[in-house]
Design goal:
5-stranded antiparallel sheet; single chain; elongated; mainly beta; Jelly Rolls
Length: about 180
């Protein structure tokens, strides 16, 4: 999985093998794609799940979800890209930024830029939470001098994530550009 550490020197050995209900490997065509040979293929999806039809093998995704087409079974995914500017930060005790629900994202990260126009360092850290109330520091703190950029990626997975930021010196107002980017 992206953004999670893997201890495998040979990525080819990290493959997942899928077997059907008869303990037999699923069928593949000559190019290694999933082989579907049944005519009249129809799968009834659960509520808000996937719908698969035999006409051109189209899969109807849930809102903002996954779409697979028959041409090479290409996968298109939804993306998230949010940015905000926090200006005139002088609080040295720190404050949390926007909380994001990352439960439905396969990979995500934060980018933080110290966009101050004067010498104004700041500290930032990534916090994660299972409930949006109790927070765990997961990455950082990182000190960003004016013009510095950092990326913060979680090493553990919980439902919520946010950036916690603070000015290093109350006399030097900080401007931070915070980017949250993810892919379903």
């Amino acid at each position: 999985m992206p953004n999670f550490k893997i201890f495998q020197d040979n990525p080819d050995q990290a493959r997942i093998k899928i077997f059907g209900n008869q303990n037999l490997a699923l069928s593949q065509d000559s190019t290694g794609n999933l082989g579907i040979t049944s005519t009249g293929l129809a799968i009834t999806p659960p509520a808000d799940g996937l719908a698969i039809t035999s006409t051109g093998l189209a899969i109807t995704p849930p809102a903002g979800g996954l779409m697979i087409t028959s041409t090479g079974l290409a996968v298109q995914t939804a993306t998230t890209d949010v940015s905000e500017v926090l200006a005139n930060i002088t609080d040295t005790a720190g404050s949390p930024d926007t909380t994001y629900n990352v439960l439905n994202l396969a990979t995500w990260s934060f980018g933080v830029v110290n966009a101050s126009t004067t010498i104004a360092p700041a500290t930032v850290k990534l916090q994660i939470s299972p409930d949006g109330t109790n927070w765990l520091d997961n990455a950082g703190p990182v000190t960003l001098n004016t013009g510095d950029v950092t990326a913060l990626v979680a090493t553990l997975f919980l439902k919520y994530a946010r950036i916690y930021y603070a000015a290093v010196n109350a006399a030097s107002a900080v401007t931070l550009n915070i980017f949250f980017q993810g892919k379903a």
